[in-house]
From TrEMBL:
Pfam family, one: polyprenyl_synt
Keyword Transferase included in the entry's annotation: yes
Assigned protein family: Belongs to the FPP/GGPP synthase family.
Keyword Metal-binding carried by entry: yes
Domain of life of the organism encoding this protein: Bacteria
InterPro entries according to UniProt: Isoprenoid_synthase_dom_sf, Polyprenyl_synt, Polyprenyl_synt_CS
Record-linked SUPFAM superfamilies: Terpenoid synthases
GO biological process: isoprenoid biosynthetic process
Source species of the chain: Kitasatospora cheerisanensis KCTC 2395
Name of the protein: Polyprenyl synthetase
Amino acid sequence: MNETIMAAARERAAGHRRRFDLRFEAYFATLPERLDTPPLSRFTPRCLDLLRDLSLRGGKRLRVALLYEAARLVTTDPVPGLAEAALSIELLQTHGLVHDDLIDDSPRRRGGPSTYYAYRQDFPDADRTALGLAVLAGDLAAFLSMRVLLDADVPAELRRAMLEVQLDAAAETVTGQIVDLERDFLPVPDEEFLHTVCEYKSTRYSVLAPLRLGLLAAGEDLARHDARLRRYATLVGIGGQLRDDYLDLFGDDAATGKTTGADLRAGRRSYAISALLAAADASQRAEIESALGDPHSPTETVHRLRDLARHLGVDAKLRAAMHRHADAARTEARTWRPHWREDAVAFFEGLPLANVLPPE
């Protein structure tokens, strides 16, 4: 039964992704004509090209699926404003990726160079220029994210409500980035702190905001349902972050499009690294700490610490936590049946399990 529910959720999400990717490509194709930019500038077209490249290069588009399926909880009719909301969500994601990679000094994203490193290749002898252009590219994506909502052909009151959701989500995500950096100054962050980072840095804009936007566009009263949306979003968000942190330590570069061990080299005390530190003895912890935050830590060291993590059962612990949160999210989604369309609720039951790794 679980496999059937998960397969249906994956199939629906894949359909949303295919349709959105075509729309996203069309948006970037016409953006240079609609955006008033200095006609003599060479740097501005390059900026737009890099944003387009990063935006279209990949991603699961889970936020888009959540948005459309949230509207489907209320109605199967076409819902005005969803297309613009989807563009807004993914442009805000592009903003986050550009700045994330800048903060983390990450060379790769989605199987290609990060925006920051693309600029470093463009300006090998002008580091400050590369840095400044990467910051501005991320800023531009954020402003475009808000602008696109204003183009939605919906009543002004709804446009304002949707814009408020996105502006709040964007501001909260920035505070999440700040707390994310604060986390890495703690010897071993406790679970509550890790959950707080996850909620502000990713859950609120990746899960909660799409749910709110979809329901708003479909005419639903958010106040009646906000508590249940928050419970579900929190559980799905933590499960997704546990998966990402797991893959950073135990995953495969070719499959993830990112360099394995990036969190270790960047000194990030992620769920995986924190669990490893907590499970290690004094001598093992000293070895971990010596590699933590070393951007030049060799692959052999990463592999040795990955093997240590497996020996200490960290991989099994993370997998168990993923599935615990996925099961709790499914249980929460089941309580939605009296409030919304039953066949639509099934997607939200299947999504949490589809979004984590299968048990070994």
